[in-house]
Amino acid sequence: MELNERATGASWRWPLLVAVTVLNICLPSLVLSYGVFWIHLANYEVPLWLGLAAPSIFILIYGLTQCWFREAADSWGGSIGYRVMASIGLGLVMLGLIICAFIPYHIQPFVYGIFGGVGSSLISAQVDAVLFETYDSRLGFIRGLCYTGQAVGQSTFPHILYVLIEKYGYHFSYIVLAGIMLQTLPAIMLLKIDETRKSSYLSRYKELSQTFMVFKNDSMDNFYGTELKLHDLSKKCWNNPSNDNLHRLDESDYDDGSIIETITPPPSPEEKRRNIFGVEILPEIPEESEESEDEQSVTSINNNNKKRLSVAIKRLSTLGDNLDGCIINQLRKDSQCNSDVNDKDYSEVEVTYETIAPVTDIHTEKILNSFSFRCQSAYVNMRRKLWMPSYRIYRIRRRLLYLMYNINDTFVKPLTRSLSCLKFYPALLLSFTKLTLTGIGIVLLPMIGLQLRPRIAVLENNFLMSLHGFTWVCFLMCTPWLAQTPKRNFKYVAVCGLIITTCACFVLAEARNHDSFAIGCVAAGFGYGAVTSCWETAAQDFVGARKWPKIHSTLETLSAILQALLVLGLLVVLRQESGLQFSMLILGVILAVCTFIWSIIAIVSIYKSKVRSFSFKRKRGLT
What we know:
The protein is mainly alpha-helical. It has helices at residues 2-9, 14-26, 29-32, 34-42, 48-76, 81-100, 108-134, 139-168, 170-182, 185-188, 195-201, 206-211, 251-256, 290-328, 338-343, 361-368, 371-387, 391-419, 424-450, 458-476, 479-483, 490-509, 514-543, 548-574, 579-622. The protein starts with a helix and ends with a helix. The chain contains 25 helices and no strands. The protein is elongated and about 130 Å long. Keywords: Membrane, Transmembrane, Transmembrane helix. InterPro entries: MFS (IPR011701), MFS_trans_sf (IPR036259), Proton-linked_MCT (IPR050327). The chain crosses the membrane at residues 12-36, 48-69, 81-104, 110-132, 171-191, 427-451, 463-483, 490-511, 517-535, 555-574, 580-607. Pfam families: MFS_1 (PF07690). GO terms for molecular function: monocarboxylic acid transmembrane transporter activity.
């Protein structure tokens, strides 16, 4: 099969694979490790909700822009398109980090979230496009490596950020972090698609394209090719197109049973007017005798003489009428009064067929300099500017109209289509759960560790966050097994991950010492790895492969909006004394609801695929 050919014949392209892994280590750590910044930000008497606002804004901007950037990545792509757009995204991320070093504490989370979300979304869209074009038959395994890079970044970046803050201070640590992000630029320069491999392997219609390949005229096997064949000019008649035998077959062709020359239909009447060289062929003129020519010449001369006589009579009659009119309407110039000339209004010149008066230079000057003319011209110009705007305004209107149509096609239509599908809501709940674990659950871990009694040191707290990432990596070691697993089984793994994560959230909400907090971090990391690795494939299999592209963008945008609304609701909870652990309890309740719904889906799927098919086979065997 073509899929097996691509999987076995394609190279791994190790430089690109290393570059994608490096990008997944650095960029997602802006959210996964933001809890370290939050710890030091809380020391400056900044409200806790500001620390939680930064990752939520990051995820919201990322979800709102990802659908646009992913659709535009194909048009941006090319020899340097992916690298240029990814470099622009990296520039936005660095710009946001540098700005955070020079602004007050209360504005830092907003700048951090907006610039980081847009830049990371732009880079992620280019990385996804390159991975799909390069590793289309190994996407499951490649995504597992990307998640492994994120887990490694979560394990290492808390310690890196802690060292930067202790050595350079809170403000200048942003600048050093921007310098660390700049080191991913060589990895971005490797985001390139192999054009030779793309032409040979990435064609999903390779067998169909081989059917329409151009063949030569060398042999009989290539008779049904699409190349235009030459005419046999030995059968061409140069005297008369009607006798052209190019489209006819010889008797020898019928006897041999094979056709060598190209058979063309007879030419149409329009085509008969030109030969093969484009020269027009005149129609045949019938021969006529000398007597008939003499008779026709005599009759034509008589008819011409009659026409000339009638035309002369008509001209004389009109000339007489014109002379009578000129004599009757004749007026002397000296009979006109000078007062009429002085009282004449030169703002308008009356021109008629009977009295034609030339307009002199003085008259024209009086017309153009008159007050009424200037008022009228000013009114016309004003009206033209109001009702006929400039081309710049037209371009602005056209771009606004294009933006409205783009928003309608990107958000409104997929939203109405998705809300009418019942399977969309469980998939939305699963996507929302994954985002809340990323933007709320992981960020709350270091702050919860500081509230334990006895209080855990910052360095040990960072170690527990690294433990969360390490258990995440431990689950991702099952990636080769998951890559070979059918898609219908991913929902079972996702349900197991939801169950483990739900139990971990309740443990963290009730943690009072170091041991319970460590157990909660280990369980949360293992469950988070299962959810992040399997939620998209499970949702795609549940919704259907045909409906998934239509609702994918809606899932991203709505889940990001719901996550931002949940953070707004948690602002009231965070003001309480134990607000952090109570927030974790609320997150556990949401996970419990999602686990219950997807457990029912998994049980129904097992019943349809296993129990019903087994009973059907058993009845069939008994009969």
